[in-house]
Amino acid sequence: MAGRRDKDESDLDSDSGTNPQQASLFDHILKTSKLFNEKSLSQKTKNDLIKIILELQQNIGMIQSEMVSIDEYGKLEERCEELQQKSVCLEAELMHVKSLKYDEIMSQKTPSYSDILKKAPIPVPTKQINEQTIIIKAISPINSTEVQCEAYDHIKTMQNSSNKFKINKIIKTKTGMLIKTPMNENIDQLIEEFKANDKINHTSYIYKSKMLDPTIVLKKVNKLTDPTSINKIICSMNNQLENCEDDIKVLFPIKSQSSCQDIVLRVSPKVYQIINKTKQVYTDIELINVKDKVLVKQCQKCFQFNAQHKQNDCHHNFCAECATDGPHKCSHNLKCINCSKHTNQQLKQHCDHKANSPQCPLYQTQINRTKDRTCYALIPPNTSPDPGDNFSMNQ
Ligand SMILES: [Zn+2]
Ligand SMILES: [Zn+2]
Ligand SMILES: [Zn+2]
């Protein structure tokens, strides 16, 4: 198929590096793109948002392509920082707009982007990397509002008693709510607290969201190295990884024509932390580099992200470049099938990218979701820490 890329290779695009600055930029792109749906934002503000997003994406794309010189890199980073500041200001404005009553909004002149820059206090962006999540989900969707109210009541009661919990964020969902807490809170105990409330326990499921183990990629591993036993090899070749074979699962090598190949691994947070210190490991042949790799589940035939959708059953065959279904002569004009069909006009208008590239805001959202669900460091909870608890090879 013209323009189609190899399935394994497409995963390469999710290789988004670990640079914390980049990570926080991605976060801002995500948040900023969410602002579009806000009806009370003026067209001017929306246009400013688009500009910021496009420029951020372009810069990140360039940084990621690793084609830039150190000099250019510095400039790009500086510019990204500036843009990030701007998007933070816009976020602050949105919060402000949201907090106003409808009629107040109507009677007010919508502030321009430059007004916002002048007035808005610049909040310090914080990124909670290590969070754990409790999901409260109404058994019957009709009860979701009721469940939310009960849960809020219960949280208030708890926080007024001796059983206080630190909660980072409560997110209402269609079926109930998500409660995010710092890693060092005893989440099991918190779940028990909710279960002890009959009203909540009888109307909802209460459970811990499963965290993923980090995925990494060993770069340019000589093909003479056996990929299937690479976990044993690196553990025997690197003292710091001694006895960690079971904490490393070989996922797949990425097809390549050369004498080397990249190998994708899923590792426990413990191994991730060890490898992250040096970002290099010895194989049985040579020293190789290790990079972060965020895997995004996406059908490579129709490019949808639905986790339940099976690629083997997919009836489509969309071109990764021009989004045409089935055999065709490819124009190579980039068109993202997801953005081009999206109800959001801004996404629709800027769909000249591949659906499986980090340049796609929707793809980027998926990367961020995976990152949010990944446990990169194991901070033991207050009670008996059990590293095995957070580590499963079957993900
Ligand atoms: Zn499909
Ligand atoms: Zn095509
Ligand atoms: Zn797209």
Q: How many E strands?
A: 9
Mean pLDDT: 78
Tell me the major beta sheet.
5 strands, antiparallel
> Which of globular, elongated, flat, extended, rod-shaped describes the shape?
globular
> Looking across the biggest beta sheet, what order are the strands in?
6-7-5-9-8
* Range of helix content: 25-40%
Alpha-carbon distance between the two ends? 31 Å
Radius of gyration: 23 Å
| Count of helical regions | 14
What amount of the residues lies in strands? 5-15%
| Secondary-structure element series | HHHHHHEHEEHHEEHEEHEEHHH
Structural category is alpha+beta
Q: pLDDT below 50 for ≥5 consecutive residues: which ranges?
A: 1-18, 100-106, 119-128, 380-395
Ligands, ions, cofactors: zinc ion
Task: Please explain how this structure is put together.
With 395 residues, this protein is α+β, with helices and mostly antiparallel strands. Among the domains are: 103 residues, no CATH class; 78 residues, 2-Layer Sandwich (Alpha-Beta Plaits), CATH 3.30.70. It is built from 14 helices and nine strands. The strands form two sheets. A five-stranded antiparallel beta sheet has the order 6-7-5-9-8. Strands 2-3-1-4 form a four-stranded antiparallel beta sheet. The chain binds zinc ion (ZN) (3 copies). One zinc ion binds next to helix 12.
